[in-house]
Amino acid sequence: MSGKTASCCCGQLRIEVQGETLGAGVCHCLACQQRTGSVFAALAAYAAPYKVTGTATEYVRTGDLGAKFRFRFCPVCGSNVFHTEEGEDKYVMVAVGAFADPDFPAPQDSVYECRRHAWVQLPEGITRYEKDPP
Fold first, then answer.
1. What's 103's DSSP letter?
2. Is residue 40 part of a domain?
3. Which of 13, 41, 46, 92 could bridge 32 with an S-S bond, Cβ 3.0-4.6 Å?
4. Angle CA(2)–CA(108)–CA(74) in degrees, nearest 5?
């Protein structure tokens, strides 16, 4: 099994995941745009278990379909590093940029296409959802 470590900008908060990604995607919803300060969030899912080191500040947001997402970010540098869905302990979603790996695989899914900036170009063959997938 291969391990990967993602961290905040200053290195204080880290998450170590094992195995291959369960999938990667981008989200164009307005909440992700505001949360990341970018035009979309790029996320990769990994199966539990995972190991977190450092201190995280948390923010819980309720999604459009009622799920509660607990976002963890560094209280020192403010970087978003990972999040989990409350009641779902089988996986963790890690911010792709936190891996600082330009060779990270392209996303397979794009959600909230209805909020995608018109100039954003995504890989061919990506699965697109107008809002949250069913």
1. T
2. yes
3. 41
4. 60
Count up the domains in the chain and report the number.
1
CA 111 to chain CA mean position, Å: 12
Instruction: Tell me what pLDDT residue 132 has.
Output: 84
| Structural domain span for residue 18 | 3-118
Query: Tokens 């060779």 sit at which residue?
Result: 103
What's the CA gap between 19 and 4, in Å, rounded?
8
In sequence order, what are the beta bridge partners of 70? 60, 84
Residue indicated by tokens 């947001």: 61
pLDDT at 133: 81
Could you tell me where the DSSP H helices lie in 25-128?
30-36
Tell me, rounded to whole angstroms, the distance of Cα 109 from its chain centroid.
12
Q: Is residue 133 in some structural domain?
A: no
- Please report the pLDDT score of residue 63 as a whole number: 85
Considering the domain boundaries, does residue 96 fall inside one?
yes
On whether residue 53 sits in a domain, the answer given is yes
- How far, rounded to the nearest angstrom, does the alpha carbon of residue 127 sit from its chain's CA centroid? 17
